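Quick one - first record:
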Amino acid sequence: MTLQFEILATDGAARRGRLHTAHGTVETPVFMPVGTVGSVKAMRPEDLKAVGAQIILGNTYHLFLRPGHEAVQQLGGLHRFMNWEGPILTDSGGFQVFSLKELRTMSEEGVTFKSPLDGAMHTLTPENSTQIQHALDATITMAFDECTPFPCTEAQAAESMRLSMRWAKRSREAFVAREGYGQFGIQQGSLFPQLRKESTEKLTDIGFEGYAIGGLAVGESSEELHHAIPMAAELLPTDKPRYLMGVGYPSDLIRAVVAGVDMFDCVLPTRNARNGLAFTSEGTVKLRNAVHRLADIPLDPACACPTCTQYSRAYLHHLHKEDEILSHMLLTYHNLQYYQDIMRTLRAAIAAGTLRQTAAKLLETCR
C-alpha cells in the first residue's frame, strides 16, 4: 500500500483531509516549511514540532550536490540525518535547475548543469532524480519536470508541458512503491487552461498518489496567479491530495485553500524573517523601521509563540539592526507559527462549514 488520502469534510471546493504516510499522519490543508538542504533555516526540529509543522520539504538538487545522496543514505536517510521523524517531501530539483539559466543545457534525456559549488558537470534525469529521492528516503517523491518560464507563448508552454509529461512517465517507471510512500506528478501548462487540462489527463493516465500544480509564482501578476490557481485545482482528481508548489503569501494560501488546494510550501516565512519582516494578525511588521525602537509591546498580541510572549518589538528591532542570529531564530519561529496557525484555523473552518466567513476575516489583515 502506498500513502493514503481521505477527505473528512468539504466546504465549497475546500477540503479538510488526512494523509496517511509511513512517517506519520498529516492533517490537511497543510503548510510545509522549506528545509532545502536538510535544515529549515534558524529552526531546530523540536521547534518545528512545537509550532505544529507536520511535514517538511527537502531538495534533491541541493542534497545531491552536498553532502551527496549516497552519504545521506549511508547515514540512515534524511529523517535520521536531520533528526526529523515526520514525513518529508522532496522537490525533484527541476525548479533549481531551471533557475540556473546560463549554467545548464536541456535535452529529451534530462538536464546537464555546472555546479555553482565547484564547477563540476552533472546531469539530472527523471530516472536519477527519482533514485536520488529514494536514497534520501523521501516520504513523498516529486516527478522530475521542467518549470515553464514566464512569460511564454502558448506554443512554448505546450512544448515544455509535453516534455514534462514524458519525464513524468519516466519518473513513475523509476519509482519504487513502498507502504506509506508515494510520488506526485506535476501539472504544467502556464496560464493556458487547455494545456493544464491536457497535462492533468496525461498525469492521471500515468497514475500518481498525488498531484501538484507547478509553474506558478514564477513572475505572473497576483491577479493572474489568483485566476490560475482555481482553474488548475479544479482539473485535478478529487480523491488525491493537491499540492500548490512554491506559493506563497498568507493571503495566497487562504485563497488557494478556498479553491480546493491541500498542501503548500514556500520560503517566504523563513526568508522574510531573516530580512526582519514578520507576518502578524495586525498585518506585516517591518522591524527595521525606527518606529519599533522603543515599542515595548509584543510582536503580535494575538500570538502565543515564545517570540511574542517573551520579547518586545523594541528588542526584536535591536536584534535585527545588529544582525544578530537570535533575530533570525525568533522571527522565523514566529512566522512559521503564524503560517501553522492559519492552517489550523482553516482546517477547523472547513470542518465547521464556516470557511467563507473565516477566510474573509483573515484576509482583512493578511498580506
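second record:
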Amino acid sequence: MATVSKFDEETGPLARAHIDDFVRKVAKNLVATTGRLLEIGPQERSLVRESFTQFEIDTFDIVETYGPTHVGDITKHNVAIPDSTYDCVVGMEVLEHTLDPFGGVREMRRILKDGGYLLVSAPLNWRIHGPIPDCWRFTEHGFKVLLRDFDIVEIDILETPGRDLFPIHYNVLARCNKSKQTLDSELTFRFIT
C-alpha cells in the first residue's frame, strides 16, 4: 500500500486553499452575473453552492452517489442538456479524472452560453489520487491548448515552494467564445528558458 509523503502532507492543504480562494474570488468578481450554473463532480463539497448564490445551480456527475441533477459522462454529448444552457460551468479537479479531457472541454463549451464563464482546475505536481482514474496532468501550456477556443481570463498558479517551473496546482477562469476556432499555428505560450 502506498503511503502519503511529507511533501503531499505539506502541500495538500495549500492546494485545497488555492482552489477555495479562487472559487471565492471569482464568485465575488461575478456577483453581478446571474443565470444558471453547472457544477461538475461536486461530490459532497458545497463551496460553489455557498459562493455563487446568485445562480440557479445544477450538478453533474458520472455516478448517482451524491444525487446530481444530471448523471453522465462530461466527455460525451449529453442529450439531456441543450446547447448553450449555462451561464457558468465549474469543473474543479475534474479534467484529470476523465478519459478524454479534450472531449470534456468540447462538451463544456457546447453547454455554455456564448460569453459564459468556465472555471476549471487541476493539479500538476501532485500524487495520483481518487476518484479513480487519475489520468492526466496539465501545465499552463496544456491548459492553453485545451482551452484554445475560449478567451482565457486568468491562469492562477500555485508554485511549488523551492522548485520553479513545476507548480503544485492550476486554476483557470475562461470565457466561452463560440466564434473562436484557433489553429495550432495561432497558439501562443509564455516563453520559459
